[in-house]
Amino acid sequence: MNGVQVATTAGSQEAAQRLADAAVTERLAACAQVEGPLASVYRWQGGVERATEWRCLCKTTAARAPALIARLRALHPYEVPEIVVTPIVDGDPEYLAWIEHSVSPEG
């Protein structure tokens, strides 16, 4: 199983929760965690910005990641959302199998 974590941030807990709910409901992610608030500092349109954000961290497979990324992008309130994919290099075999089963259409 080639598991990945897909992370994004949103400007409110409600927005991050909507992204998490859609990802899991649509079987694009096995689970999604919303954490925050986070203090973000970033460069945008020539200046340094500061914002309070919430992170949505989704667990899925490498095969389902493109569809998840597309859905997050479509639902995201930001003009250019952070969407970062990190491979899961190891983990409990039963947990990794659960991720794969949960995002399969037959799951």
Tell me what the structure shows.
It is a single chain. The chain is α+β, with helices and mostly antiparallel strands and 107 residues long. It has one domain (3-103): Alpha-Beta Plaits (2-Layer Sandwich), CATH 3.30.70. 33% of the residues lie in helices and 39% in strands. The protein is built from three helices and four strands, in the order E-H-E-E-H-E-H. The protein has helices at residues 13-25, 65-75, 93-103; strands at 3-10, 31-44, 47-61, 83-87. Strands 2-3-1-4 form a four-stranded antiparallel beta sheet. Strand 2 and strand 3 (47-61) form a beta hairpin. Helix 1 runs antiparallel to helix 2 (65-75). The longest helix has 13 residues, at 13-25. The protein is elongated. It starts with a strand and ends with a helix. The mean pLDDT is 96.
Secondary-structure blueprint:
Elements (H helix, E strand, L loop, with lengths): L2 E8 L2 H13 L5 E14 L2 E15 L3 H11 L7 E5 L5 H11 L4
Antiparallel strand pairs: 1-3, 1-4, 2-3
Helix pairs in contact: 1-2
